[in-house]
Amino acid sequence: MYTPSRKEYISVTVRDPHSHCYNNGKHRRQSCWRKWKQLSRLQRSLILFLLAPLLIIGALLFPSITEQWAGLSDSEHWLQHRDLPPGVNPVLGPAAAEGPAPVAGPRVGPVNTPDDFAEPRGPNVPMLARPPIKKRPVESSRGPAGLHRDGNMSDTGAKGGGDGGQGEGTEKKVVSSWRGAMIEAEQVTEVPPSADGKEAAAPPSDLLEVDRLEVVRDAFRHAWKGYKSYAWGHDELKPISKTFGEWFGLGLTLIDSLDTMWIMGLKEEFEEAKQWVEKELSFDRNVDVNLFETTIRILGSLLSTFHLTGQQIFLEKAKDLGSRLMPAFKTPSKIPYSDVNIGKGTAHPPRWTTDSTLAEVTSIQLEFRELSRLTQDPQYQEVVNEVTKLVHKLPGKHDGLVPMFINTNSGQFSHRGVFTLGARADSYYEYLLKQWLQGGKTEDHLLEDYLQAVDGVKKHLIRQTGPSKLTFVGELSHNRFNPKMDHLVCFLPGTLALGFHNGLPGDHMDLAVQLMETCHQMYKQMETGLSPEIAHFNLQASDTSDVYVKSADRHNLLRPETVESLFYMYRFTKDRKYREWGWEILQSFNKYTKVSSGGYTSINNVRDPVNPGPRDKMESFFLGETLKYLFLLFSDDMELLSLDKYIFNTEAHPLPIWPPPPK
Ligand code: DMJ
Fold it and tell me: Where would you find the membrane-spanning parts of this chain (predicted)?
């Protein structure tokens, strides 16, 4: 019988240090067998007795271990992209075909820590937040200064004290291991079916509602974590490159988020942001800002946060900003310029034109009017009411529909002949109704313009698709109908429903219901469950689908309009299908836009679930609007920002409906 030499033994054991027998084929097998035979029967029985349970345990653990290996190799694939420069999309090109594409990179560092595996890595791997551990009570007390949702106080406390924005606290790390997150995602995805919206699938208990509120809070915390880590005090988070972008340099996301945090009860996060407003925010800056964007996002949020909290600092800041925006109205026509330098007190139109965008000059009224009421200084109200009056009298409308531009010198519409409810005109219509409500339904010219516009929409812009008879709002371009609808138009169902709730005709509500269905389909028919920026609709019955999306229009910017309308529709009808639709959208955001290191990102292609193409930008309205409306949609508390007491500005900042003047 062959016996290996010591030299051979050593060389074999070096090659396979884990083997107890010699690793050289036939000889190895013979040698093992001989050793086995040399053992006594008792020794052999004892060894077999000890090995049997180990074999059974091994067999049971095998699938889960291999699953872990699969996951690790997935993340190893993912790690290849760690060194790409900021802003480079790590998943485009041939790599996309190799497997799931990453949404975000892990922390840069040589070694994987347990945290690196705390969340899954690719857009195909759901990253849903942990379900809440316990049911939270729904608060009932609120009022302008006292309104404060408190559902999160214990949560933030559990996150290790001062790390406020570090939303993924200790508690989550324990619950959500890499594998755990997968399991949780399956749990959260189990929603009642709602495809036809008819079943109104009643959740088993109100626990479901509370769970959903917590899932939205978790989404906010995750977005805030990214903002706090990489963009604190700056305008926008770039979550992939882990840096920030500046637009005005005014902490846009932080300010846009203030009232959302207050409403969600994220007290620690709110307090930290408030300190930044107190200590760091200064409008005395030599910077050009866009009048409309600054008004709806910053002024609107400061006013709203003042109302919700009763804290003077927000009103003081609002006053300071409002007065610095006033130079925009010093134009020959009194139609404001688009841009103001808030440090120098100068204003100007864009470089290439003397026109302003119609929606921009007609969607700053709610905020300026409220500023006047609070400060008892009429100048703000006067300038914006003047704009409304001018536009009210202006020739060139088409059955209440307005062109997209207005000239700041002549005060006349320009680029006539194109009519849309989308970009550049959208919130003109929204603010007609909302100003009428804000002022206690006393300003008839606003109602008149609104009613006429809705008639104009019905007459010129509404059509149905050929295949499924989906109702949509198209555009008119020099008398030619274009079956194109921006996602922005999805504010309309909510606005129409709000009008109906306030006594306007029933056919407004009928239209709202139909358009809501279409906006839902704009999500549902996409492979990611997320709407494109622009949809085109097929008019022929022979067409195979209702919606088609041009390749340039396939992006999703985390916009709020559909969830905004779902919130209104649910509040007014209590039809649970609207909640289900919102829930599906939230899950798609979590699945395809959530970035593991913090934040959410816009994506390039809603039709490609394998490679949605992260754009590396989280717009401030995702926190200011989208998550706020989702939270309100899932809240059972109809008094939480009651629609009979508040109107939401076009950036989702609630402002009070004015009390009637004393008689
Ligand atoms: C927001 O700034 C506002 O909702 C605005 O009215 C339209 N665009 C974005 C959100 O899509």
Answer: 45-65
